[in-house]
Write a structure and sequence with these properties.
- It contains four helices and no strands.
- By secondary structure, the chain is mainly alpha-helical.
- The chain has one domain.
- Helix 2 packs antiparallel against helix 3 (about 80-100) and helix 3 (about 80-100) packs antiparallel against helix 4 (about 110-125).
- The protein starts with 7 loop residues before the first helix and ends with a helix.
Length: about 130
């Protein structure tokens, strides 16, 4: 199965991103999307814009997983690996900034841990 993998670190980063997408969809959906859509105190436009953004995040994380796995298979795709590594790092940093800025607890908004794992694995993959 791993015969075509040229960079195991980038492959691991891609798998971590895929798991993050699954957690986002199946864990975050019931916790965030369902209450959002049931809310009667949010106007329709901001409600559905947030719902749209939820799906954009789903697509982005899925593309991150795909890009990192593709780069792990094809060493000519370092630009793709760099792009998704930088995005994972930025997602991690923005999560931590938002938590600090809004006075939240670290593990009440755990996205930084998921993107942090992807970031570390991908950085190691790019350094090897």
């Amino acid at each position: 199965m791993f015969d075509d993998v040229q960079n195991l670190w980038l492959f691991a980063a891609g798998v971590a991103a895929a798991l993050t997408a699954l957690i986002h969809i199946f864990g975050g959906g019931p916790e965030n999307v369902r209450p959002l859509l049931r809310s009667n105190d949010i106007a329709d436009v901001p409600k559905y814009v947030n719902y749209y953004c939820w799906h954009l995040v789903t697509l982005t994380i899925t593309a991150m997983a795909t890009g990192l796995i593709w780069a792990s298979l094809d060493p000519t795709q370092t630009g793709l690996a760099w792009m998704w590594t930088i995005m994972a790092i930025l997602f991690t940093l923005w999560s931590l900034v938002l938590i600090k800025w809004k006075g939240q607890k670290l593990f009440h908004m755990p996205q930084w841990t998921l993107f942090g794992v992807v970031s570390v694995l991908a950085v190691i993959g790019l350094a090897t």
